[in-house]
Amino acid sequence: MAKNEKNAPTMDKISTLLDILDIDGVPVLVSTKEMWDKIYNFPARPDDLILATYPKSGTTWMQEILDMIQNDGDVEKCKRDSSLERCPLLELKFPHKEKTDLEIALEMSSPRLIKTHLPSHLVPPSIWKENYKIIYVARNAKDCLVSYYHFHRMTSLLYDPQNLEEFYEEFMSGKVAYGSWFDHVKGWWAAKDTHQILYLFYEDIKKDPKREIEKILKFLEKDVSEEVLNKIIYHTSFDVMKQNPMANYTTLPTSLMDHSISPFMRKGMPGDWKNYFTVAQNEEFDKDYQKKMAGSTLTFRTEI
Ligand code: A3P
């Protein structure tokens, strides 16, 4: 589908657009709002592993790493289905699927790997209650913004921004699905002090995947051989995942994700924001960033 066609106001598109509603002030897609009671009452199980991220922070990458760990580095098992099918996104209903991902999760056998983009204060209480394990991946805001912009362009789930300038304003004011990046990363950062959360950074995983995967193994109390560890690193590298149809989302209908507009596996490189931000934008961003992150102990690398 050409970009112009994607811009065309179909009924589906309009309802997605108009119904970015909010839960507790956090913008969410219409399907999330519609099934909010079910999401909030989702019954987590003790052996669930929850992967939480702000969109475009390396969710699919971490999912692949965790699936490889759970399957002891068996690449074929990890190709049993596409990313979206292997690990439900708790709060969404994808238009090409009959069931909501929550329904799919309820039918899954344990141990389940479930992902969510919800901010920490909206996570179903059952997950907090039993103190189940959660892995959170954060990515620096500049690269996250650029990645989210391109994702908006290629998916019919989200509105089509006119240009980066427009999207920049929306992102900085938190008027995007899942709300403010700032509130998200800070909320989960605070939550880790009272819950079993392993808080990881996209840039660290890129810089030293072995060290970060070892952290995950320790958190999950899991041991793998050096050979399996190397297999996990290789299979989850950007170039290998980009070629893997079960990990790169190319098996989804083009009406949902159009990789000819922008591939899902786009660049995978910290510092790509430099190719998009103007000098003025960058200065404005840094000023705003200081204000919004004031008092936080969280630090990010915007390049490696
Ligand atoms: P870019 O758009 O910057 O390339 P999410 O899965 O949360 O939607 O995040 C998508 C982002 O993670 C995209 O970023 C994508 O390219 C990147 N990504 C996916 N797999 C990766 C990998 N193995 N290594 C590095 N980045 C990866």
Describe the model:
The protein has helices at residues 3-7, 11-18, 30-34, 36-40, 59-70, 75-78, 83-86, 101-107, 125-129, 141-154, 164-172, 181-191, 202-207, 209-219, 226-235, 238-243, 279-292; strands spanning 21-23, 26-28, 49-53, 113-116, 133-138, 197-201. It is globular and about 50 Å long. Strand 1 (21-23) and strand 2 form a beta hairpin. A 4-stranded parallel sheet has the order 4-3-5-6, sandwiched between helices. It has a single domain (3-292), classed as P-loop containing nucleotide triphosphate hydrolases (Rossmann fold), CATH 3.40.50.300. The chain is built from 17 helices and 6 strands. Residues 1-18 have low confidence and may be disordered. It has 304 residues and is of the alpha/beta class. The longest helix is centred in the middle third of the chain and has 14 residues, at 141-154. It is found in: Cytoplasm.
